[in-house]
Design brief:
single chain; alpha+beta; Nucleoside Triphosphate Pyrophosphohydrolase; seven-stranded mixed beta sheet; two-stranded antiparallel ribbon; 3 helices; globular; binds 8-OXO-guanosine-5'-triphosphate
């Protein structure tokens, strides 16, 4: 009698598990050395996790490569045509209610068009060491610290 019950419980656990969400985000960089800055964006108050800061990007749609997805998101969100550069790091994070996301970060140093705010509350260039001053999404916090301490880039 015990075996079927264990199977049923296992199936139920699988049915309720939220799938891993695949996200891409850009570190748009300018300047070099101590002058280096990265472009960051603040979510609108009406969005989930409103007013938190993030790197521009979003979910990978079916059939897209990560770089294609990021180029599309940067076009939609900022109106730029970006050349997606090196992969910097991948972060996994489980939000309390939203399941687990995996974010692939890519460097962007070349783009055409002017940065145009199409969806954000605010957006700005920040020196790397000033990043911890902004209230970033929880998934980004280790990366923010590493960037500020010069451990990445
Ligand atoms: N773009 C971006 N998303 C991030 C970062 N950090 C982080 O946790 N995320 C999360 O990754 C997901 C990005 O997908 P999205 O931009 O399509 O998010 P969304 O939920 O606002 O859009 P939706 O309305 O289509 O669901 C969001 O859940 C967002 O909170 C980041 O630095 N940049």
């Amino acid at each position: 009698m015990k075996e079927p019950i264990r199977k049923l419980n296992g199936q139920r656990a699988l049915d309720t598990a939220k799938p891993l969400r695949h996200v891409v985000a850009a570190m748009i960089l300018r300047g070099s050395g101590a002058e280096r800055e990265v472009f960051i964006c603040q979510r609108r108050p009406d969005q989930p996790m409103g007013l938190k800061w993030e790197f521009p990007g979003g979910k990978i749609e079916p059939g897209e490569t990560p770089k294609e997805a990021l180029a599309r998101e940067l076009s939609e969100e900022l109106g730029i045509v970006a050349e997606i550069g090196d992969h910097i790091t991948t972060v996994r994070h489980t939000y309390r209610n939203g399941g687990t996301i995996e974010i692939q970060f890519f460097a962007v140093t070349e783009f055409s068009g002017d940065l145009d705010n199409r969806i954000f509350q605010e957006m700005l260039w920040s020196p790397l060491e000033r990043l911890p001053d902004y209230d970033f999404l929880a998934a980004d916090l280790t990366l923010i610290r590493d960037l500020a301490e010069g451990k990445i880039l």
